[in-house]
Amino acid sequence: MTNDSPHRFAVGSILVFCGLLLVSGCANMPDPADGDAVAEYIQTNDPLEPTNRQVFAVNQGLDSALLKPITEVYRDTVPATARQGIQNFLANLRTPVVLLNDILQGDLDRTIETLARFLVNSTVGIFGLADAAAELGVPAHAEDFGQTLAVWGVPSGPFLMLPVFGPSNPRDTVGLVVDLLTDPFNRWASNSGQPQAAYSRAGAETVDRRAQNIELLNEVEKSSLDFYAAIRSLYRQRRAHGISNGLDVPEIQAGKDVEFTDRPKFIDEEVSRRE
Amino acid sequence: MLKRFALTGALVICVVGMGFATSARADANEENSLQFIQSVADKAIQSLTAKDTPKPERVKQFRILFNENFAVKSIGKFVLGRYWGRASEAEQNEYLGLFEDLMVVSYVDRFSSYAGESLVLKDARTENETTITVFSEIKRPGGTKPIQINWRVGTNGTIYKILDVAVEGASMSTTLKSDFGSIVRQKDGKVSGLIDELKKKTASLTEEMQK
Q: What count of Cα atoms within 13 Å lies in the side-chain half-sphere of residue B29?
């Protein structure tokens, strides 16, 4: 195994970052006498917020200088069908990791689905370029080792903003490392002395993922007052959704005191006044 | 059109079928919630997707749609969380007005684009006496995974209002609560600080829109 293999590099950087975190600044604790403030602090679960915000600012800088412009060129020049093919191909390459985690989570149905998808898409789907399995009624699902740890009952730990990799937490960071190490393609690339294959794939995955999220992120950035806080919340909700396989619907408190007023009579005047 | 008819029919049969297992009242609420969300989607298609409608007109239409069908005050109160009680009545009213402005200006585009694609209602589930979740998805062109959209509907049995929208598990109101809460904390717990930020934000969004 060569030492310049990309997943080793990624794992190394993550470990170095975790070491740096240990010597970095922490958020101010709220006044212990203020019960609501303490509850809020615990719920926010972001004791490293000042450091996380700095990392976020650096990530944002990298994104607007590099990743976003590249993604926009990709989106504007590559036709949609080709982009869909690339997305399918990359998803098919990830299938072994999804399969491993389906098995580790003891989910027999999903294990069979993933196996069937891999077989169908790698053959009928021509190396995964077409998602033939989805057409046959077996849609894709995502799984990763962070989700597996969560299913096993491992708590997420505090929020963490990783350099380059973005929003995470200790559990999902471990998951990310394990996913990189268990991925057969990455192993093949480093064992056969072709690390550039794994680098290219990582680059393609990064651009593909950015392209998939570009509208959503633009909109959140545009409409939020504190983009960092919005991203932190979105990351957690999306992870919870993935961990429960989309079955959990979070309890929404707003339902408890709805005021069922009919349409206010003055609304038309109100509308014309505001416009 | 025929497809939607068939779908609504299938859903009604589905819900009616489930009614034998659950209470008749919950059943009626679920059925009405599905119809309610369908009617909101239909109205959105009518008023927002016509391509030649100028943006200010679409914003106006969306403001009406938003006020008629969303529990704006309840959502605004929820989003402000524990700081609602700390605000003066004048601040509460000013906040609610700005909250509505922000929602209308920032969601008009997303709502318009969603309305143009086919929203497929899947199912409804009773959460408690006054709350129902409507499950739906938006089919995307080109075989991409459909987007899951869950609507939280509040009802008193006669009036139905949307309390929350969750896209792929991410709730609008939960995200806003985190966003706004963070601002209030940065402003030493003062709602007036949030109001200033909201004013700046809505002003810049409105300006951008008129370009």
A: 24
